[in-house]
Amino acid sequence: MTRPNVAVIGLGNMGGPMAANLVKAGVTVNGFDVVDAAKTKAAEAGVTVHDTAVDAAQASDVIITMLPNGGLVAQVLIDIIDAVGDNAKTFVDCSTISVGEAQSNAEFVGARGHRYLDAPVSGGVAGAAAGTLAFMVGGNEEDLESIRPLLDIMGRSITLCGPVGTGEAAKLCNNMILGVQQIAVAEGLVMGQRLGLTSQAFFDVVSNSTGSCWALTTNCPAPGVLGNAPADNDYTPGFATDLIVKDLNLAMDSVEATGTDAQLGRLAAQIYSQLQADGLGAKDCSVIFDELKDRN
């Protein structure tokens, strides 16, 4: 079966490796980003880089967006759809935005004769580079099946969660859990160190016990344990604190809208917001450990 040409709009820490993996699999990829360094790196990986998102989309059948916020996603969709007219496209938004924004995007795109899936991802930069992302998809099953071979290249897990918006719902639930777990792991490591445990001993026990989780086994916040985690590279993200603050705030909007009693989620949102206010927004979210260990 002939693979469709793909546009990737947003070639940063996540979109860049995703586009590179598509190229490696033989897919023709057209790309765009506002950052010159991201465009250069994508071009080196074999992506055909265009001057505008519209140009990249016009040369493609499937348009993947991986952008920082819902406002940018909506504007890019408007720009592209105004330009492509009736030439039907499939839009796959892998950004983390609100459920309502995803639903509004789908309504707008569908009214113009195009298809839309919300497909946020989990796995971080490492998962994007390795092609092992988990895709949480909201939308029509037939539309998903039409682009599943592309998602298979970029990920190891593809779950149809339900109608448009449920992919984002799953992502917000997941990242609220991640925020709580990353803090809990950091607190446990700090307490363990003060009780005489080395970080390695803590890791060896907990990673094989009931406290094991991604925030420890893949994103261990203590330097010198994994060797390739953000903590081992001065907390270069990974998953930046700025982004987890954004996602936790979106989750808190959903907590309010649904009347959910999410006490730990609220606390995680507060803790990470303070970390951001302290100037650590550009660091990986695991930097919470570095901040906690210096507290009395």
UniProtKB/TrEMBL annotation:
Keyword set, alphabetical order: Branched-chain amino acid catabolism, NAD, Oxidoreductase
Enzyme Commission number(s): 1.1.1.31
Catalytic site positions: K171
Gene Ontology BP terms: L-valine catabolic process
Domain 3-hydroxyisobutyrate dehydrogenase-like NAD-binding, chain residue ranges per copy: 165-288
Superkingdom: Bacteria
Pfam families xrefs: NAD_binding_11, NAD_binding_2
Annotated metabolic or biological route of this protein: Amino-acid degradation; L-valine degradation
Catalyses which reaction(s): 3-hydroxy-2-methylpropanoate + NAD(+) = 2-methyl-3-oxopropanoate + NADH + H(+)
Name of this chain's protein: 3-hydroxyisobutyrate dehydrogenase
